Amino acid sequence: MKNIQVGIIGGAGYTAGELIRLLLNHPNTELNFVYSTSNAGNKLSYVHQDLVGATELTFTDTVNPDVDVVFLCLGHGNSVRFLKENTLSETTKIIDLGNDFRLTADRNFNGKTFVYGLPELNKHAIEKARYIANPGCFATAIQLGVLPLAYAGLLKNDVHVNAVTGATGAGTSLSSTTHFTWRDNNVSVYKAFTHQHLGEINQSVNQLQTDFKSDILFIPNRGNFSRGIFATLYTDFEGTLEEAQKLYESFYEAAKFTFISQENLHLKQVVNTNKCLIHLHKYQGKILITSIIDNLLKGASGQAVQNMNLMFGLEETTGLHLKASYF
Amino acid sequence: MKNIQVGIIGGAGYTAGELIRLLLNHPNTELNFVYSTSNAGNKLSYVHQDLVGATELTFTDTVNPDVDVVFLCLGHGNSVRFLKENTLSETTKIIDLGNDFRLTADRNFNGKTFVYGLPELNKHAIEKARYIANPGCFATAIQLGVLPLAYAGLLKNDVHVNAVTGATGAGTSLSSTTHFTWRDNNVSVYKAFTHQHLGEINQSVNQLQTDFKSDILFIPNRGNFSRGIFATLYTDFEGTLEEAQKLYESFYEAAKFTFISQENLHLKQVVNTNKCLIHLHKYQGKILITSIIDNLLKGASGQAVQNMNLMFGLEETTGLHLKASYF
Amino acid sequence: MKNIQVGIIGGAGYTAGELIRLLLNHPNTELNFVYSTSNAGNKLSYVHQDLVGATELTFTDTVNPDVDVVFLCLGHGNSVRFLKENTLSETTKIIDLGNDFRLTADRNFNGKTFVYGLPELNKHAIEKARYIANPGCFATAIQLGVLPLAYAGLLKNDVHVNAVTGATGAGTSLSSTTHFTWRDNNVSVYKAFTHQHLGEINQSVNQLQTDFKSDILFIPNRGNFSRGIFATLYTDFEGTLEEAQKLYESFYEAAKFTFISQENLHLKQVVNTNKCLIHLHKYQGKILITSIIDNLLKGASGQAVQNMNLMFGLEETTGLHLKASYF
Amino acid sequence: MKNIQVGIIGGAGYTAGELIRLLLNHPNTELNFVYSTSNAGNKLSYVHQDLVGATELTFTDTVNPDVDVVFLCLGHGNSVRFLKENTLSETTKIIDLGNDFRLTADRNFNGKTFVYGLPELNKHAIEKARYIANPGCFATAIQLGVLPLAYAGLLKNDVHVNAVTGATGAGTSLSSTTHFTWRDNNVSVYKAFTHQHLGEINQSVNQLQTDFKSDILFIPNRGNFSRGIFATLYTDFEGTLEEAQKLYESFYEAAKFTFISQENLHLKQVVNTNKCLIHLHKYQGKILITSIIDNLLKGASGQAVQNMNLMFGLEETTGLHLKASYF
């Protein structure tokens, strides 16, 4: 197959860096351009410094509108602006890693219809889509934890979610809470009950269980590590642990990156992979679900490549057999 | 005042190390002996290596039964065994840092009656006590977060608690989950819903609000840091944020180490201090309480010294004006 | 090409874990068996927990003597013992990751001759070798930093080396210096001037510059991170920076994984890659060389796969295009 | 004794924060004012957030010129500017934590003569001084490691120094190398051979050994921890280890915070203390000296208080019996 020509918009951030790392090793893609006005002319390796020796490519401030697919790695709100100010060819596919098109109310933009790109939920629609709204990182971990219950219509009450994210979740900009001396050996909570990813989570839950009217109560935390999301969810569940496991195994039977673990989980099992691992635990009338991902891979750039593979008819896992860093 | 003669039993662990550090600088105590059979004859600084230059004292395998107070820093279950095998003088006070005497059912032992040593709850009883059961670390953080509501009889429903502890919470013994390569940049959950501190927490809540029949649902986590506990709790609360703040301010009016913060909290505000900081946040019908402590100080050895001060009629804060490490 | 049948001996350690991760994604190999007596019957993912979902293979306590290549991932000294107690087929190649066969005095064993497997030094010998002694981790970083100068005969005086290694360098066994509470935010020095890798370093330097009679003065440090080696070396150098850069660029012209960076380096540029990055700095009569690797990849398992590729006539980089974890 | 009235200039940085923490617990001082134009009116605890519950003091933009002592915690170069723009009373003592007055060429300023405030070197001069130039953090660790040899006239050749500092050494300002995602699990080198502290180090060495003409070759590193400096130094030494130990013990006999350890050192032995620990090791013709301090205490604010104690005739250790954080 002829190589897919790829453009990346907003090439200096963390998600763009991960995309570049993935696509340089992807057997069916060619990095046609990486757009970053602030770094135009600099080598990619000047910003993404692990790329020394891996590529001589430079950033550009010119968009090639005729590539096969464009990834938008822009701050939230900036994808809309970019698409207003730039015209891409009719056949260019778009995968937006921001949150501009994730909610139903935002999906139709300028004649384009965006499909919510969670393969475990919308695989067939993604295969036929031209425009993808890639899910948020917390949203991915939490949805993959809760969707099987919604699918079975078993969400009867509030879902209590606590999740902690690595510092890359906050982006490359400098702030007091990303300063090393602040964050080293520290923990804190933010946006309790109101994190912006709740919108897409509730939307997907309702897509599967239309009568779900309870709350998803979500406490997000900042962790003192760089990569990954560790989420725990619990809710009422009357069935047995075995029934829950069967339900989850069945729901994820065709999933290429989401697996049920019989053992307790710890975050580093998924760091530097595109996997989501899920563990189930039953205690009295509650089920506890642990769901873990790498926020930059399954939570962002890895899932974006997974979506690209589906859109172009490639094997879903192409270029995503990553060696975990583990330690 | 003549110096209080102190004995420490089980001197090689983390809580004993903190006690030694505290008591070496306490103006009214003298370390009479530090008992550790495995280290007898070694300098304290051989095990607690920050003490180089601070003391020439050595561990002993002989118990002096006539000291004024003995701190038991033994693994859970071993305090009972120690007191069966060793006889202390009638006037020797005992502060047990283990969990052998915390529950009502365990409080009377061999003619001794232990008082649960949470000063914010039982100050007057502690002042008159001869035997103290020092609270657990998670138990301290969670109780200080929830007791004002119980006091006001306002716990109407389940309390949802998530807390993360530093690696010192697991003690000095080596295990796979305390190995650096495992824990570095990692997170995990353990003993979900069944942590042993729930017993003492429920007991104190019921002491203040006898009609509390709901559940305290507690998810403990292992964090990738050494010291501290960061706990978030939420439950239904119909009042306003101001009412909650007034209630907490009032409940802790006389407390010497527990303070209400108007700002969001982060763990390092309390590391290397004996403080508990609490922050309140209201969202719709819920109140979110953040409660943070240093697990080795307010969660163990600092609180033990606080109890000693009260038992001996000293100013409660003596020897506990600690410089935070903060970074 | 028919898949190379691979056996791994000592499958539960860090280097074996990395080998398994690499070989599961290598296009030309098949994991024939992973030998670990203590884990026989367990899934690989029971020990290497990132492999959940990636393989169902189990450990075995039976050695298949007819595989194409065996990797020995044993504690130092145990490779000799293993080869005495087990007979492999005449055609089975062996790559030893321990230090049993690295020194000239040890290279001939039981009719086998081991080649020192540093591709930048011995590429042609490796291509023809049946038995490889894979270099040590510190030895790799330091040699790649100093060999170009030796090659040019320019080592005129002592070489001063300081290097810091991640905790995986100490292996999986538990010890006080690998306990999280000890190592978190800590640094220490060990084996100053006497580290066991000095033998192989001096041997390679003398292979290129036979008149080198000065000392390599090496201070190894334990760092509070999991992966990687950061080494600085300096020595007298009369030439210009440009001459040094030209020398290094030329020496590594054919190298597939060793690159000269014009910018200052930081360790994470190479973490989770098989690369060695080198930076040169001139100050008055000294040259300062920074050399960085991932201790488990270029310093162990990645280099072992690189050697395997060379021995089997594969492209040297096969299976080693790894996505850096970077953060 | 009447309390010493203290003013702090530049109150929002790390060293000012440490000073405030120390002085709030110092029995003989009263914080008269903390000057910070950018934070005027804010509580101290708004910036130094561990102070919640410890003080209600606020920052001011007014300097009280009549306090007993002023600490200057300003960026390098700004102390001169501050003293030009502000007039303090004739009797107000000054302790400058910057590097404006450390070198002999800079010591006389505007009628004031600054004494270099390293108590182990200049105790008597400090006791009589009105103006103190507080040493740099690296400079303190390295001088305390090397001065006994200089005192004995035994520095015969180059001194090779490698030291790593925590992120607080870089100050509170945000930069790429203080971003958590960059620094977490990372190491790097900077200012090799040219660090600005070499000036004061060489000056003190020459004060004790006037014929020292060799080089102090210093490689500074950025470590992935918050507090502390870990320095190793080696040089030629013909005597025995015992002779070296006797020399160091003798040189530091009267020192209150500098101790010789018979055991190997690790950084956390001094974190959150005002101590310097030194370990000596002999190998062939070299002596290896390990010297460790907390960069914010013995390397800055703790030493400043030590100097204040000496200047005001207080016991040198007053207010500096700090509980180590250790873990």
UniProtKB/TrEMBL annotation, chains A, B, C, D:
Q: Where is the active site?
A: 137
Superkingdom classification of source: Bacteria
Q: Which Pfam family name is an example for this entry?
A: Semialdhyde_dh
**For this protein, what is the EC number?**
1.2.1.38
Query: Which SUPFAM superfamilies has this protein been placed in?
Result: Glyceraldehyde-3-phosphate dehydrogenase-like, C-terminal domain, NAD(P)-binding Rossmann-fold domains
Biochemical pathway: Amino-acid biosynthesis; L-arginine biosynthesis; N(2)-acetyl-L-ornithine from L-glutamate: step 3/4
Alphabetically sorted, this entry's keywords are: Amino-acid biosynthesis, Arginine biosynthesis, Cytoplasm, NADP, Oxidoreductase
For this protein, the record's Gene3D superfamilies field holds: Dihydrodipicolinate Reductase, domain 2 (3.30.360.10), NAD(P)-binding Rossmann-like Domain (3.40.50.720)
Q: Where is the Semialdehyde dehydrogenase NAD-binding domain?
A: 5-129
> CDD domains in the record, alphabetically?
AGPR_1_C (cd23934), AGPR_1_N (cd17895)
Q: In which compartments does the protein localize?
A: Cytoplasm
Family the entry assigns: Belongs to the NAGSA dehydrogenase family. Type 1 subfamily.
The UniProt entry, under PANTHER family, shows: N-ACETYL-GAMMA-GLUTAMYL-PHOSPHATE REDUCTASE, CHLOROPLASTIC-RELATED, N-ACETYL-GAMMA-GLUTAMYL-PHOSPHATE REDUCTASE, CHLOROPLASTIC-RELATED-RELATED
What exactly does this protein do?
Answer: Catalyzes the NADPH-dependent reduction of N-acetyl-5-glutamyl phosphate to yield N-acetyl-L-glutamate 5-semialdehyde.
Q: What is this protein called?
A: N-acetyl-gamma-glutamyl-phosphate reductase
Source organism per entry reads Gaetbulibacter aestuarii
> Gene name on record?
argC
